[in-house]
DNA sequence: TAGTATTGTTGGTGATACCAACGACAGCCA
DNA sequence: TGGCTGTCGTTGGTATCACCAACAATACTA
């Protein structure tokens, strides 16, 4: 027997949103795992690539990560020599994080992975539909 | 200093999707917690309300839950006397789950909570925009 | 200078999602 | 009829994401 769908759930925007997000996350996670990175890894590397050397607190704000998770992710990236850390000479509290050469090339590689993920997740969408979706989602967040 | 946004992240549909979903989840979780329920709880109750007595395997398929999570959630709901369970007389493997009277009224109460959540999450959206969003999200999932 | 705020670290929690293995049971079919 | 296949519910995990509290060190400020 094939169970029906729940109309209560189907008509909820939050339900459709969470299901769409879960599916996108599955695709993203699978492809990133193959490339040896986690979602947090990419978020940190992407922010470093876009904003340059930056302290962890700002890193967390830009990547929407808790300070705790920034600490762990950055240390993990540092262990893989993708980022380097040094004390901010102008503020003893801050640690400046920046991409290493290996980090930059890893980021470029991951950018391609992310492009593939977008393509797979948005398969069948026209460019106009993608723009519409993106703008609606931005207003939601 | 206010950190800028990462253009790499901002233009990713999967990023906007996960941020929108995270925000919706925060609202949902906060309101459901006040009402004494979890997201899994509502998903199970909603399916039972829509499809009536049903075995756990079908419950899991309709609510998009792993069998393990169905087991735990149903047992938790049973402990709160919101659902009842009995063996399917026609199939010794299956356990039929159904709403109790208390479960039905709890579901009605939670339906109102979910309505509030939709209103809060979609604040500022026109009816047409909500329809557009919903249809785009359905195609994503 | 005393009090306040921020930074990075540490040690947690909870929700969601998913997997593997198990015994019990049903259905199929040789 | 007996064996095989598959499903069901259960148990015991794991991974990711998101979030909180407390702490020492440092910076700011009133």
Topology overview:
Two copies of one chain form a homodimer.
Chain A: H1 7-10, H2 13-34, H3 39-51, E1 54-55, H4 56-63, H5 67-79, E2 83-88, E3 91-99, H6 101-121, H7 127-140
Antiparallel strand pairs in A: 1-3, 2-3
Chain A binds a DNA duplex (30 and 30 nucleotides) through residues 18, 22, 25-26, 29, 38-40, 55-57, 64-72, 91-95.
Q: What can you tell me about this protein's structure?
A:
The structure is a homodimer of 141-residue chains. By secondary structure, chain A is an alpha+beta fold. The first copy, chain A, has one domain (19-121): Winged helix-like DNA-binding domain superfamily/Winged helix DNA-binding domain (Arc Repressor Mutant, subunit A, Orthogonal Bundle), CATH 1.10.10.10. The first copy, chain A, has helices at residues 7-10, 13-34, 39-51, 56-63, 67-79, 101-121, 127-140, and strands spanning 54-55, 83-88, 91-99. In chain A, strands 1-3-2 form a 3-stranded antiparallel sheet. In chain A, strand 2 (83-88) and strand 3 form a beta hairpin. In chain A, helix 2 (13-34) crosses helix 6 (101-121) and helix 4 (56-63) packs across helix 5 (67-79). The radius of gyration of chain A is 18 Å and the shape is elongated. The mean pLDDT of chain A is 96. At the A-B interface, helix 1, helix 2, helix 3, helix 4 and helix 6 of A face helix 1, helix 2, helix 3, helix 4 and helix 6 of B. The first copy, chain A, binds a DNA duplex (30 and 30 nucleotides) through residues 18, 22, 25-26, 29, 38-40, 55-57, 64-72, 91-95.
